[in-house]
């Protein structure tokens, strides 16, 4: 394999990454509307649209800010173009979450709105990470050198952890898990909260096998974002584990 993966069209060379990013967005949206038609949604269509706009604006800002903080030493050399080009999914989730909560307060929606997005997000992430993997070391989703069996040459002659593949495998596990619990009687909003906690737990741990730049206390901006999510959802985490303990005791 030669990284990054490219194809030619009309005598022009394109990266597969752009195609998979577009597919991820398109398929994710289609799955969302497919599920929405089969779900009794307590939130009106107009409020859903407003909330989605809040999520997109928050994700746009958050993905760039967290990506900027991934390399603290280069902050002073940033231009608007480099700031806009760099982005991270974890920052997008964090910014999107804050954008949604802000918009919901403005329009007066107090109902949890995230459960409907879980499966579309998982599918979109899986597809998007195919594109990230296709870029090799040209995309900051590769790992440190390793002698482990999964090590791959991603374009620089070194055997590295294929972090994008790890995330794709994790998304597959999450898809199976959330499909298994689709009929469970959970509190509205708990599926999204559970997804966020599990995803950021994965991102917190996977950072240790990536060549990251520490932001503070030897932790990266993505790891600090993960800690923020754990604190933000601490009540849910506590309630979830209490319920899990009670279930195990009854068995």
UniProtKB/TrEMBL annotation:
InterPro entries: Lgt. The keyword DNA-binding does not apply. The keyword Transmembrane helix applies. It comes from Flavobacterium oncorhynchi. One of its GO terms (molecular function) is phosphatidylglycerol-prolipoprotein diacylglyceryl transferase activity. GO terms for biological process: lipoprotein biosynthetic process. Belongs to the Lgt family. It comes from the Bacteria. Pfam families: LGT. GO terms for cellular component: plasma membrane. Keywords: Cell membrane, Membrane, Transferase, Transmembrane, Transmembrane helix. This is Diacylglyceryl transferase. The chain crosses the membrane at residues 14-35, 47-69, 89-107, 116-138, 158-179, 191-209, 215-233.
């Amino acid at each position: 394999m030669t990284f990054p993966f490219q194809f030619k069209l009309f005598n022009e060379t394109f990266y597969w990454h752009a195609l998979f990013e577009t597919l991820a967005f398109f398929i994710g949206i289609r799955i969302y509307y497919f599920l929405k038609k089969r779900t009794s949604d307590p939130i009106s269509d107009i409020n859903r649209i407003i909330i989605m706009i809040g999520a997109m604006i928050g994700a746009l800002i958050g993905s760039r800010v967290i990506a900027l903080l991934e390399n603290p030493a280069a902050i002073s050399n940033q231009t608007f173009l480099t700031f806009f080009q760099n982005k991270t999914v974890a920052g997008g989730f964090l910014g999107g979450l804050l954008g949604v909560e802000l918009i919901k307060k403005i329009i007066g929606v107090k109902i949890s709105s995230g459960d409907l997005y879980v499966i579309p997000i998982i599918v979109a992430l899986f597809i998007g990470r195919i594109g990230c993997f296709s870029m090799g070391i040209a995309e900051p989703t590769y790992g440190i050198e390793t002698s482990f069996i999964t090590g791959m040459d991603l374009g620089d002659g070194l055997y590295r952890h294929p972090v994008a593949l790890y995330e794709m495998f994790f998304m597959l596990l999450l898809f199976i898990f959330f499909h298994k619990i689709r009929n469970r009687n959970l509190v509205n909003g708990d599926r999204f909260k559970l997804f966020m906690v599990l995803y950021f737990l994965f991102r917190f741990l996977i950072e240790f096998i990536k060549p990251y730049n520490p932001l503070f206390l030897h932790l990266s901006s993505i790891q600090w974002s993960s800690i923020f999510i754990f604190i933000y959802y601490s009540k849910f985490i506590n309630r979830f584990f209490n319920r899990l303990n009670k279930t195990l005791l009854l068995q």
